[in-house]
Amino acid sequence: MIKVAIVGASGYTGVELARLLHAHPEVEIACVTSRQNVGEELAALFPSLHGAITQVCDDVDVDLVCAKADFIFTALPHRTAMAVVPAFLHAGKRVVDLSADYRLREVSVYEQWYQAHTSPELLAEAVYGLPEIYRDKIAPARLVANPGCYPTSVALALKPLLVEGLVDVSTLVVDAKSGTSGAGRAAKVASLFCEVNEGFKPYGVAGHRHTPEIEQTLGDVAGAAIRLTFTPHLLPVNRGILSTCYAQFTAALSVADLRAIYRNHYEQEFFVRLLPEGVWPNIANVRGSNFCDLNLTLDPRTGKVIVAAAIDNLVKGAAGQAVQNMNLMHGFEERLGLAQLPLFP
Amino acid sequence: MIKVAIVGASGYTGVELARLLHAHPEVEIACVTSRQNVGEELAALFPSLHGAITQVCDDVDVDLVCAKADFIFTALPHRTAMAVVPAFLHAGKRVVDLSADYRLREVSVYEQWYQAHTSPELLAEAVYGLPEIYRDKIAPARLVANPGCYPTSVALALKPLLVEGLVDVSTLVVDAKSGTSGAGRAAKVASLFCEVNEGFKPYGVAGHRHTPEIEQTLGDVAGAAIRLTFTPHLLPVNRGILSTCYAQFTAALSVADLRAIYRNHYEQEFFVRLLPEGVWPNIANVRGSNFCDLNLTLDPRTGKVIVAAAIDNLVKGAAGQAVQNMNLMHGFEERLGLAQLPLFP
Amino acid sequence: MIKVAIVGASGYTGVELARLLHAHPEVEIACVTSRQNVGEELAALFPSLHGAITQVCDDVDVDLVCAKADFIFTALPHRTAMAVVPAFLHAGKRVVDLSADYRLREVSVYEQWYQAHTSPELLAEAVYGLPEIYRDKIAPARLVANPGCYPTSVALALKPLLVEGLVDVSTLVVDAKSGTSGAGRAAKVASLFCEVNEGFKPYGVAGHRHTPEIEQTLGDVAGAAIRLTFTPHLLPVNRGILSTCYAQFTAALSVADLRAIYRNHYEQEFFVRLLPEGVWPNIANVRGSNFCDLNLTLDPRTGKVIVAAAIDNLVKGAAGQAVQNMNLMHGFEERLGLAQLPLFP
Amino acid sequence: MIKVAIVGASGYTGVELARLLHAHPEVEIACVTSRQNVGEELAALFPSLHGAITQVCDDVDVDLVCAKADFIFTALPHRTAMAVVPAFLHAGKRVVDLSADYRLREVSVYEQWYQAHTSPELLAEAVYGLPEIYRDKIAPARLVANPGCYPTSVALALKPLLVEGLVDVSTLVVDAKSGTSGAGRAAKVASLFCEVNEGFKPYGVAGHRHTPEIEQTLGDVAGAAIRLTFTPHLLPVNRGILSTCYAQFTAALSVADLRAIYRNHYEQEFFVRLLPEGVWPNIANVRGSNFCDLNLTLDPRTGKVIVAAAIDNLVKGAAGQAVQNMNLMHGFEERLGLAQLPLFP
Questions:
Q1: So where's the catalytic machinery, residue-wise (chains A, B, C, D) (predicted)?
Q2: DSSP class per residue in C105-157
Q3: To probe the interface with B, which of C249, C299, C343 has the most B CB atoms within 10 Å?
Q4: CA B335 to CA C10: how far, in whole Å?
């Protein structure tokens, strides 16, 4: 039984961590923090937790958190995380950080897309927590940078193509769509129900901050630098990301061959489901679960390969993957606490 | 480990039973049936189950089902259930029937609201499976009639008021609202996305079939015949029922007194959550869980009491309550397999 | 051609006024104001208006507005409206005020439910702008208080019952459900997409500010003071209110008789549609239009009458009714600019 | 005043034609047909029309329709349209056909993607009804093939790029997303509310029937054969299509230059709105209107151009464009009856 803290528990990632950790047989939620809600029960912010999670929100006080918990999830905004993560490590704690602060290895890239970095010395040590690609490095890590939601879906969609060198990487296009929980729980007009419902639009076109993160991982698996066009869109649903990926296919392989390659890459991966031919990923079929559903085909008329990946952005795209990383770091069975089936409908 | 069958697995109640039973530590799903999909994997009908539920649909063949399973959930349409339930009992199986066929004790009432009953001799034996009211009778039962979704929410909302005799029962009004999964998975124009989305309407006004079922249970707890006005409405959401109940309050009690009475009635009930004062039930806060959230107040200007109850119609209103009944019938801990927190957002 | 101003154009009522007035053949939108957006095009706040509404937002400056416009719609928050309406009247303008500030005739009632009133002397003069009840007083009025959305639906639903004295008024219960645009465009966590979508809950139970407004109008038509229980709920849709109204029926009349009474009351009313028997109002069928759809029945088992009314809260519940009032005040045909059919689906 | 018929009025395109034609000052709806609903009021199928459209559905009887109407909209399924269109033409009527039957000029292409064509002799005569590209041919036409919803959005998005030769056409990728009304009003499980709501998925990947239609139009504007990869997705909204288009940009132009080119192409087009820089098209901002909103940018890191277009699939993508074509064919002002602003929110 390990005692964990959720630092920054008042957002959607925080409540999802609470839901998943509550169901984890080897974990006790020992501390939750929320600067704006010190002294309030977390269940007062999220009545869904009523009767089950009785923790009261602490301030983000490093000593207090370290006194209560052995393992720390930081679910803070970018740039707020880096203000406390070094202290947690210094106190001897292991951390899964769900912000973007430790995902990019190059400080110059971070500073180009975000702002100044206050603990760049940790970037080399931090391990990018996508188990299906970096599993061996995660187990011994002190600091795991939990991947972004879009990057998780894109990396899993494209990894076999890039590892095997089956596409012209200069033609990569990713058209991605995310549910609104990805925008967080901050009170903004753009996230109001009436602004999002019955709407659909692109945003961050040719400039979304997940672009360098995606490129870093794809570069690792391809063994060469990658540049891609990435366009996110806002979906009028609570949860789910679907990324549709396109590239010019350069191999003389059939769809069946390609499916076999994907099967080989993922048959040991419990959380990656290559769907039967013709059954395309639907975010509704992964809701609430840690699965990433995949399918693909070749367009014989244009020579393009099309791969689609669906995840729940709050689970495999955030809290679930964080728990998966914790399991690896603690030597628990990787799927412990994460085996629930998706909620459909 | 008990082997269970889901007879009629192709509807939303069927897939929800599969989801919940898959997570139950003492259960193996040994048989699933679907007349229209014999020979197909259940996961082909519901890709959310892909990789986890590998059962192939059998026909609704009593001998076959009885050979494979020890315990049977019938999730068939009304009037189809009664065609097979007697045979399952005859074969020595215990059954939780999720249809309406065995919920009403009086055959005349059944035949007034539905059609002719083909096994009326079982009505006296069948136990109405609302554990918070009929727990003791459920444990030894061979046949449990799993309650309807609306009746579950209304009975839990009103039980303390009626047991304690605090209202004028001639003034009872229940205004209820259900998510669309309550209409089932049949292909009907009225259930199409574009017909339901951004819409809201009453239906079955002054004539919904759950009325006599509600009245039977309320009559039991009140110790007297009850007649009420019940108006269901269709909500543009997948899951959830919220029932708002009104009656003239006849007791000289404060809201605090009344809350204390509700607390007493339900403090031992894990699945009934009386929310803090001012926090009204929201179907979003019970999604995917077996909880029933309650709150209430008095209108000092009119002397009415107002009680609202929220459940997930597919869980506490159907599959979750069925599993709760199975737990009672088998002597398992009542909440086994049902302790997951709601999925919010 | 009259020149109109929309004072407070940055909310959902403001943009709906712009949409409707743009389509009105006798109106020119001569001025729009928004304190927070002075100098910006209204179409920058609402790209739906792009290319059609080119007005730039002015400050809420009485002299400026009066110089530009002859007729003024104030779509400001409660208590902000009363700070400017007297000055517009003093400058000789006629005003339709969409706030609650001039709806209640008794200053004591206003101050009990809202706060101190700064121009109580206008309450006696202001005309409550529900044309189907107060048409004759609206035409000559200088100041029309545009009704609230809930009160409009409830008054139209119940007027015939109360005028004819067919119910026991002590038993009135109104269970109402509103789309989320009713909560306005302010950035609040409770109005975020993920908080509202797939949710449903009551709010303001036994204490909503529309209660005294409903009671005032019902009292007028009944000829006696009315107290009712009114429970609003939040619907996960953009637009629409459905009010389901209950009362003990005291007349010896059939449903057909009652329908005839409603038909008589409303056959001259273009915007009130009594639907055919069995076709219940659905907010989807009035979307974007100024219609109020009605239907009703008697519950023979309990003696209750049930009446349901559906409106678009932004049209008949706000901007459309405001235009209808303007038409009456200017002697235009009452339905001018308001004859568009609902947008379905 | 022309008398029009809506042949096939029971679908979503039919009711939208009724809504728009009802508002058209020069049109009388003289006939509506629906094979399954002969003798019923159209308003019984669509209560949104109650009180305004009193027409009763006729059978699809050519003589009857021709006796009642001068101008005919056929809103029938593919292959059903071609069974009646020739007879309407033979009777001297002019027709806007909203099916796919006359959109493809090459019968072989039609038969490859659809089935056998029974009136191929009309393909040469039929004019593809996209006014912003084929306006001059539409005015004198007897038979106008109203474009598909996806093709309309894609053609308007890409026309300037292809006319000016600014991209490598072998790299064209269109990732499109459609609201559910595009699937029609047929009772299918896949279109049920609970299947679509909170979901999102691709469909028809590398094989959707709109592909050859898009390629035909783009080929016309490019002056060369075009092959593109086109992936549609199903959006959980009632109305709206957003198409995101990608291609390798081959010109030495800035974003400002490119915007100027688009402005030149569309400044005379009332229904095409090039939005301000940074304001991306959102289907919510065209709902209920005949507008096509566009925006674009260049991705400097990859050299791709990205163009997004949003339309209401039932208006500019079907019924609205059909009315626009009728206006052109009759010499009415092109925007007559189509000038309503979008309904937001």
A1: 149
A2: S-HHHHHHHS---S-GGGTTT-EE--HHHHHHHHTT-SEEEPPPHHHHHHHHH
A3: C299
A4: 50
C223: helix, coil or strand?
coil
Question: In D45-59, which positions are buried (b, 16+ CB within 10 angstroms) versus exposed (e)?
Answer: bbbbbbbbbebebbe
- CA atoms of B225 and B215, how far apart (whole Å): 7
Bridge-partner residues for C72, per DSSP? Answer: C5, C95
Neighbours of D39 (CB within 10 A): 10
Cα separation of A155 and A222, whole Å? 11
Task: Report the C-alpha gap between C154 and C215 in whole angstroms.
Answer: 10
Rounded to a whole number, what is the distance in Å from the CA of A249 to chain D's nearest CA?
A: 12
- Residues contacting A138, CB < 8 A, separation 6+: A127, A129, A131, A144, A325, A328, A329
Answer yes or no: are the C-beta atoms of A259 and A310 closer than 8 Å.
no
pLDDT tens per residue, range B281-329: 999 999 999 999 999 999 999 999 999 999 999 999 999 999 999 999 9
C278 touches chain D (CB under 8 A): no
Question: Within chain B, which residues score under 70 in pLDDT?
Answer: none
In whole angstroms, give the CA distance from residue C13 to residue C76. Answer: 9
Task: Compute the mean pLDDT over every residue in chain C, rounded to the nearest whole number.
Answer: 98
- C127 to chain A, closest Cα gap in Å: 31
Pairwise CA distance, residues B144 & B125, whole Å: 9
Residue B321 Cα distances to B161, B311, D78, angstroms: 23, 11, 47
Residue B237 DSSP symbol: S
Strand pairing class (A304-311; A241-249): antiparallel
Identity of the residue in D238, D276, D342 whose CB atom sits nearest the CB atom of C48: D342
Please tell me the distance from the alpha carbon of residue D229 to that of residue A301, in angstroms, as a whole number.
8
Q: Which entry of A31, A57, A66, A149 is annotated as an active-site residue?
A: A149
Q: Is A192 on the interface with B (CB under 8 A)?
A: no
**Quick check: helix, strand or coil at residue C230?**
strand
Residues of C in contact with A194 (CB under 8 A): 12, 180-181, 185, 191, 238
pLDDT attached to residue C53: 97
Total number of residues shown for chain B: 345
Note whether B341 contacts A238, CB cutoff 8 Å: no
CB contact at 8 A, D27 and D4: yes
**Beta partners for residue D31, in sequence order:** D5
d(CA A209, CA A230): 10
Nearest CA in chain A to C196: A193
Nearest to C153 by CA among C321, C268, C334, C340: C321
Please give the Cα distance from C251 to D296 (Å, whole number). 66
The verdict on B250 touching A (C-beta cutoff 8 Å) is no
Residues in chain C: 345
Distance from CA of B292 to the nearest CA of A (A): 11
The answer to whether C239 faces chain B, any CB pair under 8 Å, is: yes
pLDDT at D113: 95
Q: Do B282 and C177 touch (CB under 8 A)?
A: no
pLDDT in the model for residue C57: 98
Instruction: Report CB contact under 8 Å: A240, D200.
Output: yes
C339 shares contact with chain D (CB less than 8 Å): yes
Cβ within 8 Å of residue C109, ≥6 positions away? C212, C216
**Cα separation, A162 vs A167, whole angstroms:** 7
Q: Helix, strand or coil for residue A151?
A: helix
Query: pLDDT tens across D309-338, in order?
Result: 999 999 999 999 999 999 999 999 999 999
Domains of chain B: 2-125 (3.40.50.720), 150-313 (3.30.360.10)
